[in-house]
Amino acid sequence: MPLESHGFSPRPTRQRAAAAPIDDPSLQTMTKLNLFAAVAGIAAAVAAAEVAAQAAPAGDPVAGRQKTQMCAGCHGIEGWRTAYPEVYRVPKIVGQHPAYLVKAMQAYKTGERSHPSMRAIAGSLSDKDMADLAAFYGQAVTTVAAK
Amino acid sequence: MKTRLPLLVLVAFAFPLAAQAADLAAGQAKAKEVCAACHGLDGNSATPDYPRLAGQYADYLAHTLKDYKSGRRKNPIMAGFAGALSKADIENLAAYYSAQPSALRHGTPNLAAAPGR
Lengths: 147, 117
What we know:
Chain A is mostly helical. Helix content of chain A is 67%, strand content 0%. Chain A is globular.
């Protein structure tokens, strides 16, 4: 859909070229150029879509600060432990790499990681929420470490 | 004499168990061999995709390694590394990395106090 709206429609070009072989060398060149342009256009569109998907939402630490209510109850308390049967201290997340924090939240959301509370909480977070929270917790370290 | 024998046996068994508690030097040696390439020898990984381990709670680190090893937590990279670790390796690594200086903190910092904001 977006390809055609941008004028990149390779199929008609290819069909024309196959249906009637062109003798005029200048026309042949033009057809090749058209094809090239179409292919380049598709490649560019795909690349742009990929970049958009990867860079997704940029994290805003200030917005993230507003979304920490669900995190602070466990991650905000020093030495807070998980519930039986598997008891261990809830990991420190302040100062962790934001990219890793996003990966962790996504893994909980998809079920790849299995902690019940984290699955429920991450499941309620949008990509933007995750990016904001990761930016907040990841960036906050510079504040703490600078002291 | 008869009563001392079980006591001796008990002591003999208790010793290696106690020695396994956590060996930081062994943890560092293992870290250098297995973990350092991605997580850094001091656990402050330079790659954003790989978490900082330095200063993390030891019991959490041990928990994650056990989960990777058992396959409960799925990660193709970590499955291979954790799968090759013994129980003692896991305890030593967790103790070693948790003892390294780090920017990791618990809590909810006050962003308003950040410099430049």
